[in-house]
Amino acid sequence: MMDVVKRKWAPYLFLSPYMLFYAAFGLIPILFSFYVSLTSWNGIGKKTFVGLDNYAFLFNPDSYFFTSVGNTLLFVAVSLPLQMAFGLAIASLLYSKFVKWKAFFQLVNFLPYIVTPVAVGLMFNLLFDWQAGFVNKLLLEFGLIDEGIYWLGEPMYARVVIILMLFWKGFGYTMIFYLAGLANISKDLHEAAAVDGATGMKSFWTITLPLLRPVTTFVAITGIIGGFQLLEEPMLLLGGAGMGSASAVIGGPERCCLTTVWNMYDTAFGSTTRYGLGAAIAYGLCVIIAVFSFVGTKFYREES
Amino acid sequence: MHRSKWGRGIAQAMTTLILISLLAACSGTSGGNNGGNVKTSTPAAETENNGAAEGGDSKELKGEFVLWTWEPEHPTAIAAFNEKYPGIKIKRVQVEAADVPKKLQTTIASGGELPDVIRIERGQKAKIFSMDILEDLEADPYNADRNVLFEYDAPAFSMNDHLVAIPDDMSVAGVAYIKSLAKEYLGTDNPEEMEAMLPDWDAFIAKGVEVLANSGGKVMMFPSLGGVYDILKGQRDQPYFEDNKLNVQLLQSIVTRLVQFRDAGIVDKLDQWTPAWNASFGGDKYMFTPSPVWMPQYVIGPNDKKPDRWALMVAPEGGYIRGGSSHGIPKGAKNAELAWKWIEFTSMSQAGAEAQKKDGVYTHFKEAYQNKEFSNWTWENFGTQDIGEKFFVDISGVTTDVAENVNDQVLDEAMNIVLQTLAKDKSFGVEQAMDRIQKELKAKVPDITFG
After folding, report:
1. pLDDT at residue B18 tops 70
2. Does B341 have pLDDT greater than 60?
3. Is pLDDT larger for residue B69 or for residue B3?
4. Closest approach of chain A CAs to the CA of B331, in angstroms?
């Protein structure tokens, strides 16, 4: 009898620490934030149940939800392929016989990825400062421009700077995955191709690249998911240097760089304290990430 | 078999241990509140503190209060306070100015314990006041006397006409100018003559156009449109918002003035608080800068090493407030009376004013400034000019302030966009600016109405 009871309850006992952790720090916050998304609440006063009003507001023309989703998609769509192409190129170069001190160059290329986002944002802010930035000074020095470009004040330039920043920070990460992928490709294949008269480029396009497809798919999926969580870099880049700064515009000029997470953060904890709407934005983002993850996973399975 | 039994036993014991610790952590809230330290004192301990406070002898007051602040410690003020109240200790918790509202919200939402005093930066004031978490400091047991402060303090630090925070550092503001440029292009560098020459913004803009022409475009009046807006906003005689209703006429008049400044070409496009803006104080391109009390010490001084280049005057159309901080006591603070003694001493007494002055802080204790010796303040960049008298007598005498509510913060953000666009796009006019502001406000706070 005791044995039966033990057999029945033992698994639950062993699982209970995790289940309690998950309930306390995962499930309950998820359910609670969903409930909050159905209310109007400033975090202090009483919650007023408003049904789906917060979700309906996401579709309101005054809302910045879809603008922020569009901005985020744009950043991901432009920066991710660049990161992947450059990461692959660097990985192939490092894997080839032409490069010495491979470990050193691997480290150098990977370093931007481990720089804290706050430092990245501030660094690019200083580089692209309109009046005192190094980039403008360089362009002026070479006579390429007559007047400093307002990099962080013009929507198009601000987007370019963000994409450049994401590219610089992210290509090392893709490079590491491609290096691992390249190491898994048998050298026999390349040797056989060489014997058959294939050039280096030919064997890269017909052997290396197809065999790296699972890596490419994985990097793309994780890149898209990570891209949707973009917050700190643009926030620090465009958040201005201090109080009263004209550049301290949420989301940058014309809100051109307002990402979805930034929009959520600003709605709930920034210029307004609309916890309900903030939670609704978070759930909207969750749905979008889920869709991309689902599609990506499907691709990944097919590739595998 | 024996080993497997042992292994199972250890695993079960570990699991039970983790489970117990988890459950203990989950029920920690009530346990935590019954801790024995001062911060989480029991009702009995509180009664003890209160009893001592009522006893009236400052030496008998004992305990520790918690202060959320970002301000570095003021050693002289703390030493003077400790001399008067040797039994009261201050536990400082470092919280960045911009993070105070967030930290308050999350503490309240999670049922955590609020501190006994919070330092409130002006930019966050309306948001914190609107949370309705601050004690009425004019009620028992505080009984703050608003008459010891300046007249303009009452509307700015009150909710429903009751003081809920006591201002700490003076932040009245005028405009500072480079004397050599004023002498060359305006014919005088005497502050009083300058004030007579530039009584209002129309006169200022007209002179600015002359200066620009006479200098061949080399000298402008201000480095940044944001700075101009700071002055105009600070000089408004009515609040922007009455509850959720925006005073469109008032805002439009200010935007119109900004457009006039922009179109006159007398304001450059520097963003405030950037390296270029900081560096501009050491140059000779901009004649004027907005100058609150903290400007000589924190901006002009560090960026301009040449002495006696600047002078201070009352801004055209009067004084205004820029920045500054205050202290408030959250409702239900456990050591509120101890905290109040500290606020009262440092911000509302002669002894506190004198001690704080030694730490570089001028308080809002009005009476202190009746003594010329106290208000006298010179600063190397301003030569021998008594900028203390200019700030605390001349400018303070013509300064007003208005109440703000939580919508003002949203408007500030919308104005940042407008200022940025005005500076870079000459075709962006008043109408477009007002449309843009309305659009931004609607997106952030749909309840706002425009009247």
Report:
1. no
2. yes
3. B69
4. 13
What ipTM does the predicted assembly reach? Answer: 0.70
| Amino acid of residue A240 | G
Domains for chain B: give ranges and CATH numbers.
Answer: 40-170+324-370 (3.40.190.10), 172-321+391-450 (3.40.190.10)
Yes or no, beta carbons of A129 and B421 under 8 Å apart: no
Strand partners, B242: B245
User: Concatenated DSSP letters for B340-353?
Assistant: HHHHHHHHSSHHHH
pTM across the whole model: 0.79
Domains, chain A, ranges and CATH?
A: 43-303 (1.10.3720.10)
pLDDT tens, position by position, A266-300: 999 888 889 999 999 999 999 999 998 888 888 77
How close does chain B come to A246, measured CA to CA in Å?
A: 5
Between chains, do B276 and A272 touch, taking CB under 8 Å as contact?
no
Question: By the CB < 8 Å criterion, does A9 face chain B?
Answer: no
Q: Check CB contact of A43 with chain B, cutoff 8 Å.
A: yes
SS3 B152: coil
User: What pLDDT, on the 0 to 100 scale, is given for residue B8?
Assistant: 65
